[in-house]
Amino acid sequence: MGSDENVRTGRHCVFRIHVHLVFVTQYRYSVFTDRHLIRCEEIMRAVCEDFQAELVEFNGEANHVHLLVHFPPKVAVSRLVNSLKGVSSRRLRQEFPDLVRHYWRAQRLWSGSYFAGSVGGAPLSIVKQYIEQQNRPL
Fold first, then answer.
1. 66: closest CA among 86, 90, 47, 40?
2. What residues are paired with 58 via a beta bridge?
3. pLDDT digits over 48-104, tens only?
4. Contact 59, 30 (CB under 8 A)
5. φ, ψ (nearest 5 deg) of residue 50
6. Using an 8 Å Cβ cutoff, are 30 and 80 in contact?
């Protein structure tokens, strides 16, 4: 485990926590072009750094984005998501006035919901089997 480059250490813990996030645009409008996604990645990378997290992978399509984030256990996923969506929405709408025309009523870029899935490590069946096979004292 010590040789794994994805393992990080904190003051009192050793961790490797990754989350797959998906954010969808409000009303699923197709608004993003490549230049929007490039800037969105830069913004989200900076937000992750503020949380001492790492944006491992980023990509998207015209109406949604996917992120793979490696984050410390002290960070709540909901707080990270709130900041990622809030900061990126505000900055993208400021920097790209063409995005604002799609959302003149809603005044927000992202849908209120999101997908978050834990990723990495062994499959759940293997972890369950490992726990079941522990030598319990009599």
1. 40
2. 67
3. 999 999 999 999 999 999 999 999 999 999 999 999 999 999 999 999 988 877 766
4. no
5. -60, -30
6. no
Q: Extract the tokens encoding 112.
A: 């209120």
Please give the angle made by the CA atoms of 126, 54 and 26, to the nearest 5 degrees. 95
Whether the Cβ atoms of residue 32 and residue 25 lie closer than 8 Å to each other: yes
In angstroms, the CA 18 to CA 21 distance is 10
For the residues of 61-90, what is the DSSP string, one character each?
-SSEEEEEEE--TTS-HHHHHHHHHHHHHH
Q: CB neighbours (10 Å) of residue 84?
A: 25
pTM for the complete prediction?
0.86
Sheet holding 64-70, edge to edge: 54-60, 64-70, 18-25, 110-119
